[in-house]
Amino acid sequence: MAEHYTSFDRGGRRWLLQRLTAVFLIGTLTFHFFLLHFVNHAADVTFLQTQARMSEVSYFVTMVLFLIAATFHGVNGVYNALINQGIQGTQKRVVGGVLTLASVLLIAQGIRVALAMAGIAVI
Amino acid sequence: MSTETETEIEEESSAETLPETSSHQQRRMDAKASKKSEREAAEKAQAESLDDEETYELKVFRYDPEVEGKEEPRFDSFVVPYHKGMTVLDALIYARDHYDSSLTFRHSCQQAICGSDALFVNGRQRLGCKTQLADLDDPIRIEPLPHQEVVKDLVVDMEHFYDQMEAVEPFFDPDDLPEDELEEQRQSRENREKVKMSTRCIWCGACMSSCNIAAGDNEYLGPAAINKAYRFAMDEREGEDRKEERMRIVEQEHGVWRCQTQFSCTEVCPKDIPLTEHIQELKREAVKSNLKFW
Questions:
Q1: For residue B24, is pLDDT > 90?
Q2: CATH label of the domain that carries residue A92
Q3: B256: contact with A, CB 8 A cutoff
Q4: Average pLDDT for residues B104-115, to the nearest whole number?
Q5: Are residues B144 and B162 located together in one domain of the fold?
Q6: Is A89 on the interface with B (CB under 8 A)?
Q7: ipTM confidence score
Q8: Which helix (H) or strand (E) holds B48?
Q9: pTM to 2 decimal places
Q10: How far apart are CA A81 and CA B112, in angstroms?
Q11: Does the pLDDT of residue B9 top 90, yes or no?
């Protein structure tokens, strides 16, 4: 058999994760919209309530997972859309690097805010 | 001897009456001939005028980089007489034979098997020989397949498409051959059913042309090639090793993962192959065979 050029992503883990995060996001987004847009309207959402919600471990964990899932889903989606446009070589590496860095910063800042809201002191 | 004499007499008598009959017959023949030529002239005039006939107008894409005056792409109009059952390809053939012999398009079997005449008709990839004029809105706009280089008029360069098809090694190649060379390599009915639709591909390229991803990403294998890979990867007679080799080809970054399940390939496939579903099945297959949780 002839050797094949491959830019291997064997197994399609990113594809599977994109699907799984999509399903997870349907649930968490629905929960988020109901709780913070329909049940409690914007005017009712106060910092005190936010602090109270974030102090609950289950809510806190859900929100952090929500953040990570949404970041992965969004960034991976943009990356794939650009691959679909046919970017290659240096362009592809740069896009990959920038998007990874953006995800790390987004998740770090998100968790920092979440911790602050929960009233957990971080250095 | 007597019989011969009788014959001679008959011949003589007929020879005597011949000139009279001949001139009479000649008059009738002349009259008939003139009537015939009049009728033919009338028919020809009517055919050329197409006044009383149902007609369709074709707007055909024209381009030829090698001919002066055709270097700039343009649309030419041809009005063709309609007859029941007439296809887009029939209309193109009529236009070429009656109006412009330089009109160029591929065609061969005219029965949706050779895959030569995939065209962009009224904004959609279709097989010319399988598309009834009666099903289309007049005027009919006929263009070459999008997302491929146009060589001339309706002819596009298919090289890239064939390269992608060949990349998936589109031939039956089992791990083990039967010991007796006369022994058949039988397929189970269930397995035949599974690959049945995928075997119907005629390499027309309509799917690849309709795919947004293939348009932007030249490395993407494309629906037809992945379907071909499916046809052999799912064939149980080939064996596990060969299947794994085939899966390695389709699970590259520019293999199955690029499909965004738009279903445009499935929509335009003239052989009704569920291309997108086959691609999805290969994605699942790839995930199953490669994801390890230990």
A1: no
A2: 1.20.1300
A3: yes
A4: 96
A5: no
A6: no
A7: 0.73
A8: helix B2-49
A9: 0.79
A10: 35
A11: no
